[in-house]
Amino acid sequence: MEAWTHNTVLWLLQVLALPEIGLSAIFIISLVSATLLPLGSEPAVLAYVTLAPTMFWAAIVVATIGNTLGGAISYWMGLGAVKTYETWREKHPHDDKQSHYAQKTGGRWHQQISQWLQKLGPKALLFSWLPIVGDPLCAIAGWMRMPLLPSLIYMAIGKFLRYTIMTAAIIWILPHLGWA
After folding, report:
1. Dist CA 93 CA 127 (whole Å)
2. Is 1 exposed, middle or buried (0-12, 13-18, 19+ CB in 10 A)?
C-alpha cells in the first residue's frame, strides 16, 4: 500500500510538472484570471518561459487565447446582466425603487465614461489588459452590446501585446539593464 501511494504521488507530481503540461496550465490560469475573479496569469507565463525559453511564443499565444476567452466570458456576463435587467424592468414598469435607483446612478463620471466608451466602441477593449479596470471593461462591453467579433479582436490584441512586452522585458531586457 505504501509503495502504491508513493508511486501515485510521484506520478501526480510528474503530470503536474510545468514543462509537460505547462501550456494547459497557462491556458486555464489565463482564462480564470480574465474573468472577474482576482488572479494574475503573468507569474505562470513567466515561470513557464523561464523553464522553457524555446516555448516563448507558444506560451504567449496560449495565454492570449485563454485570457481572451476569459474576457469573452465577462462580456457574456455583462450581456446576460443587461438582458436580465431589461426583463425585470418589463415585469416591474412602475416600481418606485426603480425610479429611485435611476436617480442614484449616473452622474458626471458615469456620463463621461459612457460617452467615451460609445465613442471608442470595441477599440476601448484594447485596454482590457489593464489591472482592476480591464475585466469590468469586458463586462461593460457586453452590457453596452458592443459587437462581439470586433470586441474579441481588440481584447486579443491588447492582451497579446501585454504578454509579449511584459514577458520579454522581464526575461531579456531587464537583466541586460542590471535588474536581475
Report:
1. 36
2. exposed
What cell numbers appear for 160 in the block? Answer: 497579446
Residue 64's contacts (CB-CB under 8 Å, 6 or more residues apart) are 30, 156, 159, 160, 163
Cell of 52: 522553457
C-alpha cell at 108: 458626471
All three cell numbers of 157, joined, read: 490584441
**Which residues are CB-contacts of 164 (< 8 A; sequence separation ≥ 6)?**
60
| Residue 130 backbone dihedrals phi, psi, to 5 degrees | -65, 140
**Which set of grid coordinates corresponds to residue 104?**
442614484
91-144 per-position pLDDT tens digit? 877 765 555 555 555 667 777 878 888 899 999 999 998 888 888 899 999 999
Is residue 146 a contact partner of residue 121, using CB atoms and an 8 Å limit? yes
Q: What is the pTM of this model?
A: 0.77
**SS3 call for 127:** helix
